[in-house]
Structure formats: structure tokens, C-alpha cells
Amino acid sequence: MSRLDELQQRIESRDAQVGVIGLGYVGLPLAVEFAGAGFPVVGFDLDRQKVEAVGRGESYIEDVSADAVAGAVEAGRLAATTDFDQLSRCDVINVCVPTPLTKSKDPDVSHMARALEEITKRARSGQLVVVGSTTYPGTTHELFVPMLESSGLRVGEDLAVAFSPERIDPANQNFQVREIPKVVGGETPRCTALACSVFEAIFDTVVPVSSTQSAEMVKLLENTFRAINIGLANEVALMCDRLGLDVWEVIDAAATKPYGFMKFQPGPGLGGHCIPVDPTYLAWKMKSLNFPARFIELATEINGQMPEHVVDKVAAILNEDRIAVNGAQVLILGVAYKADVGDIRESPALDIVRMLAQRGAEISYHDPHVPEVVVEGVSYKGTDLSDDVLDGADVVVILTDHEDVDYARVVTRAGRIFDTRNSTRRVAEGTEKVRKL
Ligand SMILES: NC(=O)c1ccc[n+]([C@@H]2O[C@H](COP(=O)([O-])OP(=O)(O)OC[C@H]3O[C@@H](n4cnc5c(N)ncnc54)[C@H](O)[C@@H]3O)[C@@H](O)[C@H]2O)c1
């Protein structure tokens, strides 16, 4: 029996030791799911605080319950470590490290390269490496395979390699992890089959595709689709602004069409680790093949203009009442990039705060999920939404549609409101004070 046959058996009996590198928004839920399915799991992270929190049975990710982490740790099925030597005892290794952009807006694969180096140093036959970080088509084949084979092992014979994109959607309560179909593409049919059998343990539906490149492209298509359609919604918002129309009314009415239309919402700009970043990975790859990714470029341009548009609208609202931005009290409602999460990565709120502060505005903010933000070296501490704070604001700018904010109270107390998310849609009275995107 080959070492990969043994691995197959260990997966089926749930004895396979699962490793997860990177215990963030993607890695921690995945580790907890594998532990819940009966696998022994060890998580790896460079961040000692996360490793220690998991060891104490605590969760630092809003969608992962502390009970689930504590239960898995107490049952002896989940541990976390900063010691990469423990990779040698892992049969299945999932790579869930960040894939951000560099300052010059190119893919930053340094986190993946570092994780790959740690894996390669301890690679042995009978292991399966699954890349889950979002990346450009070809990364697994061009970066992972040659490096892993530099150990003398052969992919498809001694060890297996696959790519399987993450589709987790933080704060989305409508889907459990297991209900979201999992796409899997291996370097060889054997690699695909092994990765499928691992994920069949924790996902109801596993969707095999023919290659790692195809699986990488699936993820980029999904997120590029979102970025482009949000770009269209944003451009329609800019058009409606010129036409004197309410973009929210137009989109909501269009969305009553039972087929052929999918609702996307405009907003103050793209945020998060995925939608503003992933299409750039694809555009970068295509540039190397002399192919301009025109839809991506256009959507990036339109979405990137939204923070400045918001700042201009705030200035115009204040100007109507002869208030200068310089010295105005601006209360930002929500700095997280999307509703009901505390994630501020790439949040357009950070750009808006920076631009308003540059124009001399006195900024304060309220966000039930974010206690502090640092913008251009300036630290802002979140404020309560007290009557004094609302009364004292020259303008309240709603940037995140958090559920746990009393928008009716905001509308009652505040003098001027600029709502970029249609958060005040359910407020019945006082909405003549509200200006919308
Ligand atoms: N957050 C999402 O909603 C989401 C959804 C789908 C896909 N993704 C993709 O998944 C990947 C991970 O994203 P995330 O949001 O979980 O990131 P994250 O920043 O929340 O977590 C990544 C973790 O990896 C750790 N890390 C970095 N380098 C490491 C290394 N060399 N070794 C060990 N640990 C390391 C970091 O300390 C961090 O804890 C990215 O490629 C992202 O694009 C994210």
C-alpha cells in the first residue's frame, strides 16, 4: 500500500492529523469544523496571542463561538502552536494565511511563501497540502509544487497538493460553514480525490474541478463578479445623484424582477480582505500575459472614487448651511468595512476619515464592533452614541450598516445626516434631515 493509500484510509477513519496554518477569519472556523468532525487538529500561527487564546479555549472571531473552541480544546481535538516542527506530524495541511497587496498594489505572496518554506522543511510522503488562501491562477502549480518537490518528494506519488478556495462570509447567519459547497482542484486526479475526501467530512457538497488553476480561478471569478457589480451599483448611484433620483428606490424596484436581475448595493467604497484585493490578483496575472483586465480596471477605478465622493457630499451638505469642513464636528457611524463585523481591513471609512481630517474636520466615531482605529498615525477611540455626541455633531455620516445601532434615535437627535448605506430606510419620522448616497 502506498503512503497516499494510507493517507486515504486515515482520512476515512478520521485519524488523519489535520494542520491549519493561519488561524484568522478563515483558518479558525476551518480548524473548529475539522475538530467537530472528529479529526485531531493543530493550528499554526505566528501570532502568539491567537495561539494562546485557542489554547485557553477562547474565540477571537465573531462567527466562531467560544463554546465550540473550548469544547474542541477540552476534547483534546484542537490545539494551537507557534512551533512549525509540529507540521511533520500533520497528514493534511491547510494553508490559510493572508494574501494582501503590496504598497505598489501587486500580489503579496510573502505569507504563503513563508508558510510553504516551513512545510517544505518538514515535508514527508503521505501528506496532503491544500492551499486555501485566495491567489492568482497558477500559484499552487508554479510556487508550491516546485518548492515541495525540491525536498525530493514527487507530487501525486509521494504527496498530494490541491487548491480549495474559501467562501466564508463573516457575519452571514444564513449559511453554516458545512452548507456552503466546497470547490476542490488537485494537481493530479489522485490529489483531487484525496482533498475531496477530506472536505466531504465537513461540507455537505464538494465540487471537484480539473486542476488547481481552475479552482484558483473559480474564487477570483466569484469575487471579481462582486467587485464589478458593486462598481456598477456605485456608478448608478453617481448617475442618480446627477439625475436627482434616489438610487435605493431604483435598485429596490429593479430587484422586484423575478429573473435576470441580481441586487447589488452602492456604498462608500469597497472594503475587507477580499473584494478590493482579489480582482487585482487576477489583473496582475493577466498583465503578465499581456491581457488587460478591462472590467476589473474600470470597477477598481469607480469603486476607488467612492470615498472621495462621500467626502465631497459631506462638504456640500455642510456648505448649504455655511459650515466649513475645517473645524466641523463630524461623527462617523461605523468604521468596519461591512455590517456586524469588527474588521476594518481596507475599510473605506479609513480613507474618508483621513480625507476629512486633512480638510480640518474634527472627527469622532461610533462603532459597536471597533473600539479604536488608527488613521495616519492618529488614534481615534470609539465614542458612545450619547445624546450629547449626537447633538454636538454638525453632520453624522453613516458608513456601515450595523444592526445594533438605533437609527431612529440618530435621526431624531442629529441635525444633518449623510447615509451612504440606506441604514435609515426603516426610520419613519425626521427623514427630511437625511441625505442619501
Ligand atoms: N476573511 C474572509 O472573509 C475570507 C473569505 C474567503 C477567503 N479569504 C482568504 O483567506 C486567506 C486568509 O484570510 P483571513 O481573512 O483568514 O486572514 P487573517 O488575517 O484573518 O488570518 C490570517 C492568519 O495567518 C497568520 N499568518 C500570517 N502568516 C503566517 C505564517 N507564515 N504562518 C502562520 N500563520 C501566519 C496571521 O497571523 C493571521 O492570524 C486570504 O487569502 C483571504 O483572501 C478570506
Classify the beta-strand content into a percent band.
5-15%
SS field, number of helical segments: 14
Strand order of the largest sheet: 3-2-1-4-5-6-7-8
- Total count of strands: 15
- The stretches of 5 or more residues where confidence is low (pLDDT under 50) are none
Largest sheet at a glance? 8 strands, mixed
* Associated small molecules: nicotinamide-adenine-dinucleotide
Question: Any idea what the radius of gyration is?
Answer: 24 Å
> Could you tell me how far the N terminus lies from the C terminus, measured between alpha carbons in angstroms?
64 Å
N-to-C SSE string, H for helix and E for strand? HEHEHHEEHEHEEHEHHHHEHEEEHEHEE
The 3D shape can be described as: elongated
Provide the residue-averaged pLDDT. Answer: 96
Q: Percent helix among the residues? A: 25-40%
Structural class: alpha/beta
